[in-house]
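for the recovery benchmark. tokens below, seq after
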């Protein structure tokens, strides 16, 4: 038996999965897999030499959904292009950017412009996490104002609900709950109600012996909630629905929905969601908002509301992308009816900064709005500088050679 020779171009064959794996988004695809077009666009292009190892959901040029084939980079091979040919091709593609604006990484694949910067995958991840933290700071201020309004609006019913679940059927089907503990305190944290309500029929086995009958429990709920705004953590709707099924309906006043921001992500308005948003802890591994540990009782939930109301908002400065989009929905106007516009100046290095300096001296551009310069993708050898300011000055300037955006 001869020993297989292992070279950098032909590494030892690892154990392979029996069938290609499917990925829902590009962020889930490991670095070791790439599509055919990604390999072709690399600064040292390659081509697949092995079977399809996975699929990722994507869109074709008509924006129709499709599965994009993924190949193992270790099973690919260099294209026939020589080093001299690649150097000449790179010189002709001067608009292609492979250097990360933030960290300087020399990326193998071309980088796309994102808000005036060309970012590698890690810097884009960092920028995304930072933007999420900024938006959570904005949301924390909204939740603090909401909590102050809740505590000042009058009688409250801060409610904690927990179910006593029944054992599932032998086939695994879920049975209705046996009982529910409903704990209610008022706007000052004082107890209004603490009752265990039976939610099963009199012949159902396993229900707590100390639970009150459904008709008594329903009456207690009506009394506790009368004239009070409800702040509920837990499946109160399940309790009310089950009481109705047992012939003891409980009528609850509808609650007011929260405010939805057109340009920002959807933030749910339930108290459990607001509590997680107020804490604002992100998972370091995924960047997703963590689910905090539950308060556990109505009086602890009241304490959380009080802490939310007393919040002094701190955190990363600046506006989130969503907040900026919201602001763009309504044009802003300055003295004399001047409206805000964004301008992109394309030209040789230093041209955009010089123009920005002149316009800043005329109080037409805000210095903090200056972004760039970054390499232009449309004009080889040129750079793009972004700025924002007064429309009554910048629009005439755009007519004389600058490019106006928005």
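predicted aa per position
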């Amino acid at each position: 038996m001869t020993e297989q020779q292992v070279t950098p171009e032909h590494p030892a064959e690892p154990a392979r999965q029996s069938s290609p794996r499917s990925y829902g988004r590009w962020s889930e695809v490991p670095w070791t897999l790439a599509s055919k077009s990604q390999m072709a666009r690399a600064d040292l292009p390659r081509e697949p030499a092995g079977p399809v190892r996975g699929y990722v959901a994507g869109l074709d040029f008509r924006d129709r959904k499709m599965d994009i084939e993924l190949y193992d980079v270790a099973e690919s091979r260099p294209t026939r292009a020589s080093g001299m040919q690649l150097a000449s091709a790179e010189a002709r593609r001067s608009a292609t950017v492979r250097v990360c604006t933030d960290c300087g990484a020399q990326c193998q694949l071309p980088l796309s412009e994102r808000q005036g910067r060309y970012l590698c995958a890690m810097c884009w991840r960092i920028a995304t996490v930072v933007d999420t933290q900024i938006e959570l700071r904005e949301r924390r201020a909204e939740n603090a104002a909401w909590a102050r309004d809740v505590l000042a609006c009058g009688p409250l019913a801060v409610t904690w609900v927990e179910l006593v679940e029944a054992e599932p059927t032998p086939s695994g089907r879920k049975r209705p709950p046996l009982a529910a503990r409903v704990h209610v305190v008022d706007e000052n944290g004082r107890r209004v109600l603490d009752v265990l309500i039976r939610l099963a029929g009199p012949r159902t086995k396993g229900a707590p012996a100390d639970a009150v009958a459904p008709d008594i429990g329903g009456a207690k709920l009506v009394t506790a909630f009368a004239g009070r705004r409800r702040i509920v953590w837990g499946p109160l709707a399940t309790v009310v629905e089950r009481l109705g099924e047992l012939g003891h309906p409980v009528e609850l006043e509808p609650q007011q929905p929260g405010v939805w921001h057109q340009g920002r992500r959807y933030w749910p308005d339930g108290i459990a969601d607001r509590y997680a948003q107020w804490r604002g802890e992100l998972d370091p591994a995924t960047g997703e908002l963590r689910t905090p540990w539950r308060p556990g009782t109505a009086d602890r939930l009241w304490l959380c509301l009080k802490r939310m109301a007393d919040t002094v908002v701190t955190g990363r400065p600046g506006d989130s992308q969503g907040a900026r989009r919201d602001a763009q929905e309504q044009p802003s106007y300055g003295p004399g009816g001047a409206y805000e516009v964004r301008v992109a100046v394309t030209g040789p290095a230093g041209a955009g900064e010089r123009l920005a300096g002149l316009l800043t001296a005329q109080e037409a551009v805000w210095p903090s709005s200056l972004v760039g310069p970054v390499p232009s993708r449309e004009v080889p050898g040129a750079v793009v500088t972004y700025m924002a300011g007064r429309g009554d000055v910048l629009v005439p300037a755009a007519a004389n050679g600058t490019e106006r955006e928005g």
